[in-house]
Design brief:
Mean pLDDT: 92
CATH class: Alpha Beta
Order of helices and strands: HEEEHHEH
Distance between the termini: 18 Å
CATH topology: Ribosomal Protein S5, domain 2
Oligomer: single chain
Largest sheet: 4 strands, mixed
CATH architecture: 2-Layer Sandwich
Strand order of the largest sheet: 1-2-4-3
Structural class: alpha+beta
Radius of gyration: 14 Å
Shape: globular
Strand content: 15-25%
Low-confidence stretches: none
């Protein structure tokens, strides 16, 4: 994967209910507040990534959507850390577990740190 490919296409999005269920039942997790990442090895060409923000912590849809955009952008800019380090591909769910808004830079740092630790 070249460093110029900074896209997040629909082919990379985690959509399969079976895969999501398997991810939460038998996947591994990494946590660095306010981000939790669940991941599991899969046999595909690309990583599959989903993002989630709790409705319990953010009642307003506008707030949830903003945080989801920040999480997707953080993954998009840092996905090369997984592709360059390992030949394995993963199903990844990035979950925001914080209770207040954070600047994009903070979210980017946390996601980058966690993506680098995926094995």
């Amino acid at each position: 994967m070249s460093s110029q490919n900074l896209t997040f296409n629909s082919s990379e999005k985690l959509k399969s209910r079976k895969l999501i269920q398997s991810l939460f039942e038998s996947g591994q997790s990494l946590k660095k507040y306010p981000i939790l990442i669940r991941f599991q090895k899969i046999e595909t060409e690309l990583n599959s990534v989903g993002v989630s923000v709790s409705k319990r912590n953010f009642k307003s849809a506008v707030d949830r959507i903003r945080i989801k955009r920040q999480l997707r952008e953080a993954y998009r800019l840092n996905k090369h850390k997984i592709y360059n380090r390992t030949d394995s591909r993963f199903a990844i769910m990035i979950i925001f577990i914080g209770r207040k808004h954070l600047p994009s830079e903070t979210i980017h740092e946390q996601v980058a740190h966690l993506l680098q630790n995926i094995e």
